[in-house]
Sequence to fold (158 residues):
Amino acid sequence: MKRNHYLNWDEYFMGVAKLSALRSKDPQTQVGACIVNEDLRIVGIGYNGLPKGAEDDLFPWKNEGEWLETKYPYVVHAEANAILNATQAVKNASIYVTLFPCNECTKLIIQSGIKEIVYESNKYKDTVEHKAAIKMLEAANVKTRQIKVGELTYAKVS
Fold:
């Protein structure tokens, strides 16, 4: 008889996104992304961080103040990193993200051919950037759905 309490696909892929988020060095917001093709195979993962080769300690991580003294001009978002790290084309894929994508990442998602966004948090839903993202996603027929994945528990396998 099979085990009854195991992760479904959404829990599994969001779990990978959450695990990826733990690699982020951002002290305020850690975001992870996991791209899954139509065969339910992971083809790309990413987290928010500095570009390759940029030393983490040489750049600011603040989220307030003069623009060049904040993280915003320097950090690559998790979705962009997942697309750039993809091992194959992501056309018709789904992207699992711990935070709903910003308008800039939305453009990349649409342009890359991803057809579904599965997200957990939507803390910026009242911003103009979110409204722009939604407008683009609707125009491009990209599906979105929110899921809640609590603390993942690991059953001991004997």
